[in-house]
Amino acid sequence: MIPTAPQAGMVLHYSFLWKHEAERGQDEGVKDRPVVVLVLLAEGEEVVVAPITTLPPEQGAPAIEVPARVRAHLGLDADQSWISIATLNRFVWPGPDLRPVPGSNPGDALYGYIPQKLLDAAKQSAMAELAKRVPGLVVRRTED
């Protein structure tokens, strides 16, 4: 099931749209993946999420490594993973892009929660990137 209200630190299964995909005119991500809810906006009606990926970040790209213990707790692949801050998605909750976690009960989009320390590190990294005003850092998703 989809949680009725978002919370920072939730890890959800989501059709994440990368910056380069949005620049090509795509309106949906190519791959569904885990994402972390970083920030709640408009009293929880909108959220900003960051993707979790097993691809190592490019040199200098902002990313936070997800510890093995956290990956295991969430049921993610055992492969090394990172919370990428190179592209963020912003959408109205719950939006059409939440997906069921593979192998879960139908409609369950929630993997679980990351620890507060990891969430704080990801939020701090995101705030530093937002302060740089990088064009296209936040891809705004619509319900269309």
Structural descriptors:
alpha+beta, 19% helix, 144 residues, 8 strands, eight-stranded mixed beta sheet
Give a written overview of the molecule:
This protein is of the alpha+beta class and 144 residues long. The chain has a single domain, classed as SH3 type barrels. Helices cover 19% and strands 31% of the residues. It is built from three helices and eight strands. Strands 1, 2, 3, 4, 5, 6, 7 and 8 form an eight-stranded mixed β-sheet that branches. The longest helix is centred in the last third of the chain and has 16 residues, at 116-131. It is globular and about 40 Å long. The two termini are 22 Å apart. The mean pLDDT is 93.
Q: Please give the alpha-carbon distance between the first and last residues.
A: 22 Å
List SSEs in N-to-C order: EHEEEHEEEHE
Helix percent reads 10-25%
CATH structural fold name: SH3 type barrels
How many strand units? 8
CATH architecture: Roll
The global form is globular
Beta content comes to 25-35%
